[in-house]
Amino acid sequence: MPQPDAHVQALLDGLREARDEFLKAVGDVDPGLRTAPGLVGDWSARELLAHLGYWTGHAAEALHRAEQGELAEFGHDELSVDERNVVVARVAAEADYATAASREQGAYEAFATRLAAVVPDTLEERNADGDTLAQIIADDGADHYREHTLDVRAWFDGTDPADDEDEIADDEADAD
Predict the structure, then answer these.
(1) If DSSP codes are grouped into helix, strand and coil, which group holds residue 43?
(2) Rounded to a whole number, what is the largest CA-CA distance in the chain?
(3) Residue 151 maps to which CATH number?
(4) Within 30-93, where are the H helices?
(5) Do residues 144 and 40 make contact, with C-beta atoms less than 8 angstroms apart?
(6) Which among 4, 50, 89, 162 counts the fewest CB atoms within 10 Å?
């Protein structure tokens, strides 16, 4: 398989780094607490892994639909995002932690494989909701892992995750 172009490689690198940071953070959760509610809202680490697995799978599906020339029909689900998240959490609660972790890994691998093969010109194509493929990749991928890494760190620190997001935004503004 040929190497992805520089932009796609940057997306892949960002996705891998964000996921690695998330897995490190969630890996620090005591194994006895990985299925206990309360890590993020009512979710345990297991539900959080399932949540990220679902949404990385969603991004992989968007990439697949773009490959097929069908991205414009992708979107407009019968369930809202919140309703979908409730279903994913309910299904995850019926599995053990290892199963949720394995499913997340499979979804991540499918996403990364499809992303590595994406035709860069398709990144600006839009789905039925008006989102570009690049937005879907970021929202369901690296940005989503980063968001929940902040949630897990906030749980450990006993802080509000919004405080961490504000601090990161301030640091980025200072760097400019």
Answers:
(1) strand
(2) 46
(3) 1.20.120.450
(4) 45-67, 81-93
(5) no
(6) 162
